[in-house]
Amino acid sequence: MAVAASAAPRGGPSSRNADWISAICVVTFDLELGQALESIYPREYPLSDAERMNICYLAFPDSNSGCMGDTLLHFRVRCSGPGAGGAPECGSIATRPEDVLSPPALMYDPACYFGFCFFRQVRDPQNKRGYFQKSVIILSHYPFISLFYFLAEMIAPEYFDNGEAALEAVYHQMQQWPSPVPGQYLHLPLIGQILQVRIPSVKDKPTSIRPPASATPLSIRPVVLPSVYEVEFYKLLQPLVPHLYLLWELVLLNEPLAVMAPNPTLCSNFVQVLVNLILPLRYGSDYRPYFTIHDTEFKDYTTRTQAPPNVILGVTNPFFTKALQHWPHVVRLDEGTDRGKPLKKSSTSSPGAISDVKPGLYTRYKPFITPDRSALRTLGRTPSTPRRSGDARDAQVRRMLSEVTQSFMIPLERYLATLLPLQRTITPWRQPPSLKPFSQADFLKTLEVTGPHLTTGLKGNWTGLYKRFFSTPNFQYWLRLRQLEATNKIRVLYMEAICKADVLFWMRDKTEVEVVDFILRLNDLLHGQESEVMSPLAPRLEHSLAAQMKTITDALSDDMQALLSTLPLDAST
Predict the structure, then answer these.
(1) 233 contacts: CB under 8 Å, gap ≥ 6
(2) How far apart are CA 337 and CA 343, in angstroms?
(3) What is the pLDDT of residues 515-566, one digit of tens each?
């Protein structure tokens, strides 16, 4: 598990909209080159050759999809360019202080781009191919799926009507946007409209989110987006409702899972739904909502010389039916999938020969948990009033899956809390204690009195599920994030103890070497040098620490003060 250093935006103007998007690209079809990057804004934004190639091939639906008119899709591709922060691995933890309040699943992802494409294909007798084919792509490091789909539908038509000048105008408008701070209602002006959005916060409670009672008066009635990241859950999952708990386990355990769909819109949205099955837990390994045979990692994901990687892969090219035949779990969708047509589960591990492909779930996996069949039967029934009942079912499915995930994670959270040192063991004059190591054996002993059976009616082999979970990227990501949070908590408690201490009394019987060592240690803690992820300190605490450092430094000899002045200390914050 990598911890990615926070890096400045890659190229382009230094502005707040770089938090929201990285760049806007236009990809066209060139008769000699094929799919080619026609333009990018900001123009100086650096993309590596591999990034350019992947973006170009992912910007168009597969030739077999037959998409006419306008098509929306999204993809996720690994960063590899010179400004990619050392090309951290997918699933790395961002170190940006502003991510402290962000739910893990919605954090800025420094290792990957999310691309949101608006593809237009219409007949054009003036074109030698007989068609106009072009895509407008928004690149971002945020998984704000529904927000960026909405933006793509606003920006692309504007570009098709007014050319590249429209991209420049849009980009400059977005420069004025506030940063995407979690927990706040934000007003985002764009192309004559004002969008009202809210980024979820880790402090949110399910019943506490309400629109602001008195907003700042606006000249234009805002367009309210109810969510920045959600896609239609129930509509896409309804045909697979009988297998919902099985899918939840496959995603929880980072099992290799291929999604084969007839078009990239269905493909990318369904993969996103799968990733969201385990919310609020973040999916900790790689996933590709839309993947093509031209991707630079195609050979890595299709080779038969090693086990398939822990990846969720969304594909539309029929070639993958054969190329992914060795994958253990495959979901095959058809055009009726998003209209509630039931799909069956097959005990074979692949959809078979390319000429005998039927929609369904293909897996030999034996789940650990017995599903609640009564709840699944209720969910599987077609709503009597489509729209409103569909929204209610959407919320019902999300709540049901979220409760299962939370019931599974609560025992882990409780056990981890016992690994924290007691506050009374934290003193100013000794190195702060560390978090005790996570013991799988000790945790499993707690399940009898703290296990999921206390918070969910589901029965099954929970111990077996936990044992499998321990070896997954999902567990490693969760544990690393919690360890970093605990380290920061200990760091804050230690600094609070220092702020309350009588440092002059402590210095009376200490040598200057001991005092200088303490100053250096305090400076490292103040600036996060002993913590891989530095949480922002409260201003009060920061000022108190700086004052204590100054008190200690002023009590030293002039020679020692002169020596310290040559070191990279900062006691003025």
Answers:
(1) 273, 276, 394, 397, 398
(2) 8
(3) 888 888 777 776 654 445 556 667 777 788 878 888 888 888 888 888 777 6
